[in-house]
């Protein structure tokens, strides 16, 4: 796959960027160099390599849930702008 100046112009238009002729040529060369480098990955033998989701193993990143008593509803409703039937009442957001 190769990037053309037309491709760069198309992406620049989508991004609402104005590029000069030199910039278009430079970006075309740079993007083609990136693609050429990425194509080297196709040459690697990845058989037997297990997929990973993290580069480093993550252990114990989440704490266990602990049930704790919550505030009494009366105290919670003291901070509410309005309440109805023991629930916080907020303005409707749908028309």
Summarize the structure in words.
- With 95 residues, this protein is mainly alpha-helical.
- The protein has a domain at 5-43: Orthogonal Bundle (Histone, subunit A), CATH 1.10.20.
- It is built from 3 helices and 2 strands, in the order H-H-H-E-E.
- It has a two-stranded antiparallel ribbon.
- A hairpin with a 2-residue loop joins strand 1 (83-84) and strand 2.
- The longest helix is centred in the N-terminal third of the chain and has 19 residues, at 21-39.
- It is flat.
- Belongs to the GatC family.
- Heterotrimer of A, B and C subunits.
Keywords:
4% strand; 37% helix; ligase; 95 residues; two-stranded antiparallel ribbon; 3 helices; single chain; Asp/Glu-ADT_sf_sub_c; mainly alpha; 2 strands; Histone, subunit A
Indicate the topology.
Elements: H1 5-14, H2 21-39, H3 73-78, E1 83-84, E2 87-88
Antiparallel strand pairs: 1-2
Helix pairs in contact: 1-2
Summarize the structure.
The protein contains three helices and two strands, in the order αααββ. The chain has 95 residues and is mostly helical. Helix 1 (5-14) crosses helix 2 (21-39).
Q: What does the largest sheet look like?
A: 2 strands, antiparallel
CATH-defined superfamily of the domain at 5-43: Glu-tRNAGln amidotransferase C subunit, N-terminal domain
**Residue fraction in strands:** under 5%
Taking Cα atoms only, what radius of gyration do you get, to the nearest Å?
A: 28 Å
| SSE pattern | HHHEE
Shape: flat
Q: Specify the number of helices.
A: 3
SSE class: mainly alpha
* Termini Cα gap: 50 Å
Provide the CATH architecture of the domain at 5-43. Answer: Orthogonal Bundle
Low-confidence blocks of residues: none
Family: Belongs to the GatC family.
Protein name: Aspartyl/glutamyl-tRNA(Asn/Gln) amidotransferase subunit C
EC number: 6.3.5.-
Subunit structure: Heterotrimer of A, B and C subunits.
